[in-house]
């Protein structure tokens, strides 16, 4: 079953573009989400992405984002 799009707020002024691939990581919890950018508002930092894979679970805060190449 495909995962629903998720919306998070990240730093403003980043260079995320539609269809970029991003990994969101919470290293201390062993959690990550890899997905494709649906939209990013550089003024507000609101990032919407379609998750393609995930590790871990739970409600976590303090995620870090990283732009990555296409998942192989």
What would you say this structure looks like, in words?
The chain has 72 residues and is mainly β. It has one domain (6-68). It contains no helices and five strands. It has strands at residues 6-9, 21-26, 31-40, 46-55, 64-68. Strands 1-4-3-2-5 form a five-stranded antiparallel β-sheet, with no helix packed on it. Strand 3 and strand 4 form a beta hairpin. The relative contact order is 0.35.
In short:
The protein has about 70 residues and is mainly β.
Please, what is the oligomeric state?
A: single chain
The H-and-E topology, N to C, reads as: EEEEE
Helix and strand content put the structural class at: mainly beta
> Runs with pLDDT <50, length 5+?
none
* Overall 3D form: globular
The major β-sheet equals:
5 strands, antiparallel
Global Rg: 11 Å
Number of strands: 5
Number of helices: 0
- What share of the residues does DSSP label as strand, in percent? over 45%
What level of helicity do the residues show? under 10%
Count of individual domains: 1
Order of the strands making up the biggest sheet:
1-4-3-2-5
Rounded to the nearest angstrom, the distance between the terminal CA atoms is 20 Å
Tell me, rounded to a whole number, the average pLDDT: 83
């Amino acid at each position: 079953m495909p995962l629903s799009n998720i919306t998070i707020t990240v730093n403003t002024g980043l260079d995320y573009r539609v269809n970029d691939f991003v990994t969101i990581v919470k290293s201390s919890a062993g959690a990550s989400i890899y997905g494709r950018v649906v939209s990013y508002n550089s003024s507000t930092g609101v990032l919407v992405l379609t998750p393609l894979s995930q590790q871990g679970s739970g409600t976590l805060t303090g995620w870090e984002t990283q732009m990555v190449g296409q998942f192989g």
